[in-house]
Amino acid sequence: MTKSDKINFSTPSGFPEFLPGEKRLESYLLDTIRRVFENYGFTPIETPAVERLEVLQAKGNQGDNIIYGLNPILPPNRQAEKDKAGETGSEARALKFDQTVPLAAYIARHLNDLTFPFARYQMDVVFRGERAKDGRYRQFRQCDIDVVGRRELSLLYDAQMPAIITEIFEAINIGDFLIRINNRKILTGFFKSVGIEENQIKSCIGIIDNLDKVGETKVKQELEKEGILVEQTHKIIDFIHINGSIDEVLDKLKYLAQSMPEAEEFCLGVTELETVISGVRNLGVAENRFCIDLSIARGLNYYTGTVYETTLIGHEALGSICSGGRYEELVGMFLDEKMPGVGISIGLTRLMSRLLKAGILSSFAATPAQVMVVNLQEDLMPIYLNVSQKLRKAGINVITSFEQRPLGKQFQQAEKQGIQFCVIIGSEEAAAQKSALKDLTTREQVEVSLLNLAEEIKRRLAHTTPRLS
Question: Considering just the CA atoms, what is the radius of gyration of the chain in Å?
Fold first, then answer.
């Protein structure tokens, strides 16, 4: 390659790259989410970005996701190895598209080293080869929790999920949100009661799950294409529109159960939902944070019981900001053992980009530094270094200006990075063991002894809202 050759160094489509302030915001969100996860006893794990392709495609769990396969690219002098390098069968590898299938493989690999119920969280990057568009990426970070049991798992773990969702989004302070809860057994049982064939139920659930995205008219058209009769469609639409308070919806479901033929699965779903709702209430989740929504289905076929979707009130167009549910067979598929689980997922990269664009969140300042020690004289650098270290040992984030430039330029640099305070020490201040402390937000400047400098900065920071870019 010659110097005249031009290289396209732009990021590939669908692969995000953050500015420093955005990356600091992501770190803050990750820290907040991690704190809540650990508050409920979830333990961290990390699975490889690469799994065997047969693992990712096990029993059709790929769904509609496009998987990125991995093929070695050999240098020109090693092209003779090309045939040997090609991987097929059990050696074919690909990038993981979610966290749940790798979790199943992880448990199978470490079964004898884990304690059950196994509660874990992951905040890994996943990859999907979908069409890149605004707010949707091919590489993104997911924050997942799952609890997996052996043979059985208490429904109180299902109840705990809305409490965790609530604590996370209240801590992030993004406004009012609503956790919509349903149970797949209720939907499946109702479809059976109106005469929907067993082999049509999964398709119908997938169609219903798109109600918020495509609207009622489109749902009716899709059900008709599926061969559902007009009378059946009307019953389905009327059913998913059942509303009211939580207790009113539960009462309506119990009443329906009494008049439905072969209602065993439906009744079980209602009983499970009632148990989960009771647990959510006992965990102290405010009534305005959750509801029963019979249109929530979660299109993924491995969900078998409780399902959740969370929406931001007034910003419903953002879609679900946290979703998940209960599954029975997914995790045990590599072990031929029943291992029920329940979990939720926050697609953090997607969510953050949407919240930034909507103005609900703001980027952080570019640097975590709270103070800049400016450079007035090169011969005073030993004092600047000494003062900087003392401030750091006091728990203050500091940038030391190593280049001597006009003071105004140094102030501009500090402001551009979101630094609030500048420490100014010239010959007179050094001789008197004092400094000038300038607040770039208020333009106030005060004289402070070097002995009390750290405490004064900490006092002022305690009464200051962190600056955003």
Answer: 28
The reply to whether 279 and 396 lie within a common domain is: no
Residue listed under structure tokens 């308070």? 245
Q: How far is CA 279 from the centre of its chain?
A: 24
Q: Are the beta carbons of 461 and 370 closer than 8 angstroms?
A: yes
Same domain flag for 389 and 271: no
Is residue 386 located within the same domain as residue 322?
no
pLDDT at position 457 over 70: yes
Q: Evaluate whether residue 8 is within a structural domain.
A: no
Task: Specify which residues 181 forms β-bridges with.
Answer: 292, 308
Buried b (16+ CB within 10 A) or exposed e, 296-334: bbbebbbbbbbbbbbbbeebeebbbbbbbbbbeebbbbb
**Roughly how many angstroms between the first and final C-alpha of the chain, as a whole number?**
40
CA dihedral 323, 328, 333, 337 (to 10 degrees): 150
What CATH number does residue 423 fall under? 3.40.50.800
Distance of CA 259 to the CA centre of its chain: 41
pLDDT attached to residue 131 = 81
Is 366 inside a domain boundary? no
* Alpha carbon separation from 173 to 29, 314, 361 (Å, rounded): 11, 14, 9
Judgement on whether residues 87 and 47 belong to the same structural domain of the protein:
yes
Residue where a domain stops, chosen among 310, 333, 357? 357
The alpha carbon of residue 35 and the mean position of all alpha carbons in its chain are separated, in whole angstroms, by 13
What is the domain extent for residue 446? 371-462
402-420 pLDDT per residue, tens = 999 999 999 999 999 999 9
In DSSP terms, which residues pair with 133 in a beta bridge?
A: 136
Mean pLDDT of the chain: 91
312 contacts: CB under 8 Å, gap ≥ 6: 174, 175, 176, 177, 318, 321, 360
* Other Cβ atoms closer than 10 A to 452: 12
Q: What percent of the chain has pLDDT over 90?
A: 71
Asked whether 272 and 306 are in contact (CB, 8 A), the reply is: yes
Q: Do residues 314 and 193 both lie within one domain? A: yes
Match 């333009």 to its residue by tokens: 443
Could you please report the per-residue DSSP string of 279-311?
A: HHHHTT--GGGEEE-TT---S-TTEEEEEEEEE
CA–CA gap between residue 44 and residue 31 (Å, rounded): 13
Q: Tell me which residue of 183, 37, 134, 54 sits closest to 356, measured CA to CA.
A: 134
Number of domains in the chain: 2
Q: Indicate the pTM of the whole model.
A: 0.90
Neighbours of 200 (CB within 10 A): 17
**Same domain (yes/no): 77, 152:** yes
